[in-house]
Write a structure and sequence with these properties.
Elements (H helix, E strand, L loop, with lengths): L4 E7 L4 E7 L1 H8 L6 H18 L6 E8 L4 E9 L3 E8 L11 H5 L6 E8 L9 E6 L5 H12 L4 E7 L4 E8 L2 E2 L2 E2 L6 H16 L3 H6 L2 H9 L4 E3 L6 E2 L5 H11 L1 H11 L1 E6 L5 E5 H9 L11 E4 L1
Parallel strand pairs: 5-13
Antiparallel strand pairs: 1-2, 1-12, 2-9, 3-4, 3-6, 4-5, 6-7, 8-9, 10-11, 14-15, 14-16
Length: 313
């Protein structure tokens, strides 16, 4: 399988950093476990690219969980990416939903203005009492890139530009960010406010020339050269995203404990056993009466909820 690549770069003597990602192999791995309508695949694939791009700039050991909660035919899009760029993703649709191929974010997730975009930063090793950081904003935009740009500006005060593209086979993305200045200087390079703004505007205009078809058919190495051949940029060692699901039997057991003994026992009385499928990877877990009795015999807290897992009973 072709290895996915995320390429970081920075404009020399400027205040702009960027990333290009080709996450197509991971995207095909995700799709192999699901069957989604064309428009849903396009949006979820774009979110997969965006999650990798945002996660690569985080300086902590943990996961970024990106969710869009919708009020239309799509109820939920979820992408999770950890600090090693291991990614999983899923979508939840309303039953019998009819989804046109060209539907956008508003059509699918924000028909009544109640859609929400959520980013959660979940540390891998929490200190006692520590809670994940979560930012929630209304859906603002017709596409995933615009929604995330508005979130980054509102919640993180970071000027961010994103270009995302996905189809059945390919998922790619470009991120540009204006670096903060301190005392008239950038974090790594001396630069004035005027120079920083000029470089940012020029880089953004170059990025805006990128078309969806070009992204889907051009490697990121060629895109980098084609877009910024007149700029002096410094390129870092590439990173390599991959598909990975963190579900396991212990986490599924904790999910059942969070449902409560009464609800679990009612389901067991009706069906005899519980069958649980992970919505991310499709792995199946069976729990009979003995398994469930052992769960509730323990006083251990119910932690590590698998957020997008459904119990089939």
């Amino acid at each position: 399988m072709t290895q996915d690549t995320l390429q970081k770069f920075i404009f020399d003597n400027a205040a702009v950093r960027g990333e290009l990602v080709d996450i197509s192999a991971t995207w095909r791995e995700i799709q192999a476990r699901h069957t989604y309508p064309v428009a849903v695949k396009r949006l979820l694939g774009q979110m997969v690219s965006a999650a990798a791009l945002l996660s690569a700039n985080l300086k902590f050991n943990g996961s970024i969980i990106m969710q869009i909660h919708g009020d239309g035919p799509v109820r939920l899009l979820v992408v999770e990416c950890d600090s090693q760029l291991r990614i999983r993703a899923t979508a939840k649709l309303n039953e019998d939903a009819t989804i046109p191929d060209q539907a956008n974010v508003i059509d699918l997730l924000n028909q009544h203005g109640k859609g929400r975009f959520i980013i959660t930063l979940d540390p891998a090793e929490k200190v006692p009492g520590q809670q994940p950081y979560q930012g929630i904003v209304p859906l603002d935009g017709e596409d995933v890139a615009t929604v995330i740009e508005h979130y980054m500006l509102r919640s993180e005060q970071l000027d961010t530009k994103l270009w995302l593209a996905a189809d059945d086979d390919t998922a790619r993305g470009l991120l540009l960010q204006k670096l903060p200045l301190h005392g008239g200087k950038a974090e790594t390079n001396p630069v004035t406010q005027e120079e920083a703004l000029e470089t940012w505007n020029r880089a953004s205009m170059l990025g805006a020339t990128l078309k969806e078809e070009e992204m889907l058919t051009t490697t990121i190495d060629v895109l980098l050269q084609r877009l910024f051949w007149e700029e002096t940029i410094r390129v870092f060692d590439p990173l390599h995203p991959s598909f990975h699901c963190t579900c396991n039997r212990e986490k599924v057991g904790n999910m059942l404990k969070m449902l409560g003994r009464e609800e679990v026992e009612e389901a067991l009385a009706e069906q005899g056993k519980l069958g649980i499928n992970c919505d991310f990877c499709g792995k199946h877990y069976d729990y009979d009466a003995v398994d469930c009795a052992q769960l509730f015999a323990s006083d251990a807290p119910a932690e590590a909820l698998i957020h997008a897992t459904e119990a089939k009973h």
